[in-house]
Amino acid sequence: MKRAICLMLLAALLLALVPPAQAATQYALVSNTTRLNIRTGPGTEHAIKGSVAGGEWVRIDSTSGAWVQGQVMPSGTSGWFSASFLKIASPAGDAVGSIAVVNNPNPSSYLNLRSAPSYSASVLAIFYNGATATILGKTDGWYYVEISGMYGYFRSEFLRLSGGLGSIGTATIYSSNGGSVNLRSAPSYASSVIGQGAPGTKVTVYLKGKTFWYIGLAGTSGFMDSSFLTGGGGGTGSNPVPNPPIVTPDSTNAIVNKRLGSLNLREQPSTSSRVLGTYPGETAIQVRMQGTVWSRVYVPLSGKSGYMMTRYLTLYGLPVTPTKRVTHPDRTYVNLRSRPSASGGITLRVPHGSSVTILTAGGQWAQVKYKTTTGWMMTYFLK
Q1: What is the distance between the alpha carbons of residues 343 and 57, in angstroms, rounded to a whole number?
Q2: Is the previous residue joined to 74 through a cis bond, with omega within 30 degrees of 0?
Q3: How many domains is the chain partitioned into structurally?
Q4: Model-level pTM?
């Protein structure tokens, strides 16, 4: 019995002597700015003690909301940095810099990006499933995020944390003397070597600093001197892989199908009509009047209005089959004509209050279907 107690005491003593596991040190790239202020505390109310150029690396020591305390590498200047201008090289869980993906249980619905952590706060934009954001802070069930160049708050239960950076491309290891190149644990030559890559080896690029890039090599992520890498996708600290387009209330409610190379905006609802512009997939569109064949649209990117074929648009918050109600001031009927003109033959008279399907949206005239008959009707009478 005494022997058992002694063994237990010895085991407890050994456990007490083992130091607790230390969390891996994180490093962040100064991004989306040419120069970032270093402050004496976590907030803009604190004094500025210096600055750090874009593309430089910062070691992260602690976080407070949307602020990071750390040290510039290699200068050693320490202070507080706004997380809005940092991209974390080794995110985990819901830490600052982690990646969150919009994951609404209802795939046809959307998630509001709000100006403050409250359901009553104004909506800045709406995002659909698959949109990715960078976490900058967390408060009372809300995440403060950066997404598509915007900053705001998402409810946490509608996000899925991926816990990793997205790739911005690949690069190839280069060495003038043919020797292997070291992969390091930090963006510094004083850091430990955690791997090596032979010339010609392809690596995955996540972040690009001025001197060191954060890459993936043979299943290991670390830092490599950029002078030994060629290629690598976008510019310093950039990510050319776009988020799904921003769809803002009362501004855009459709996009050009992302699988489509480009889509023409035409002057009239006809493939023989003059082309006003050509727009690539994922261009944001405002549908002014929806039709099952042609929709009358406005393109915020160019400020032009015209017609696009509806089948090449992805619609948000709009009905699958657009319908309008026939409304006459005298509550009688409205003529359905054979062509879009007051001189067009009358095909039939559609009673006031009837529902018609819009086939081709128009300015003054719209092509509609009433029961089994197709014709043209003045949009004035469609509500």
Answers
A1: 72
A2: yes
A3: 4
A4: 0.45
Domain membership of residue 137 (yes or no) is: no
Q: What is the DSSP string of 10-38?
A: HHHHHHHHSPPPPPPPEEEEE-SSSEEEE
Give the CATH number for residue 352.
2.30.30.40
- Rg (alpha carbons) of the chain, rounded to whole number: 29
Contact 169, 205 (CB under 8 A): yes
Whether residue 264 is found in the same domain as residue 290:
yes
Q: Which amino acid is at 25?
A: T
Burial class (CB in 10 A: 0-12, 13-18, 19+), 290: buried
SS (H, E, C) 47-92: CEEEEEECCCEEEEEEEECCEEEEEEECCCCEEEEEHHHEEECCCC
Residues 6 or more apart whose CB falls under 8 angstroms from that of 219 comprise none
Domain range holding 49? 26-88
Residue 242 DSSP one-character state: P
Of 231, 262, 281, which residue sits at a domain end?
Answer: 231
Residue-wise pLDDT for 171-212, tens only, equals 888 877 778 899 999 999 999 999 998 888 888 788 889 899
Q: Specify if 80 maps to a domain.
A: yes
| Burial degree of 260 (CB within 10 A; 0-12, 13-18, 19+) | middle
182 to 58, 177, 189, 222, 344: CA distances (angstroms): 20, 14, 10, 10, 78
Token pair listed for 116: 């403050």
Is there a domain that residue 132 lies in?
A: no
Q: At CB < 8 A and 24+ separation, what contacts does 295-300 make?
A: 295/254, 295/361, 296/269, 296/361, 296/362, 296/363, 297/254, 297/265, 299/265, 300/251, 300/252
Residues 353-362 pLDDT 10s:
999 888 888 7
Whether residue 94 is contained in a domain is answered as: no
Q: How far apart are CA 363 and CA 103, in angstroms?
A: 38
Per residue in 278-337, pLDDT (tens digit) is 888 778 888 888 888 999 998 877 888 999 998 888 877 677 788 889 999 999 999 999
